[in-house]
Amino acid sequence: MYIYAVLYTLSFTLSEITIANTGVIASGAYAWLISGIIMMVVGVVYLVRFLHKYPKPGGEEIPDGS
After folding, report:
1. What is the mean pLDDT of each run of 10 residues along the chain (66 residues)?
2. How far from chain centre, in Å, is Cα 64?
3. What is the pLDDT of residue 46?
4. Cβ pair 15, 31 in contact under 8 A
5. For the chain, what is the domain count?
6. Helix ranges (DSSP H) in 1-66
7. 43 falls within a domain
């Protein structure tokens, strides 16, 4: 959770700095986009690890529809 807090803090600070230096409001969105992508990747990694550690009981496979 501390990593997410650091990412939010860095995103806010970096977006304010880029807006102040460039004067373009849209340039600050890149800081939020990058931190959002990092958070999504971390979430997907945790989900994959969880699914490998705790597979579906019974070993049933999902039919592929063919």
Report:
1. 86 84 74 88 94 79 63
2. 29
3. 94
4. yes
5. 1
6. 2-22, 29-53
7. yes
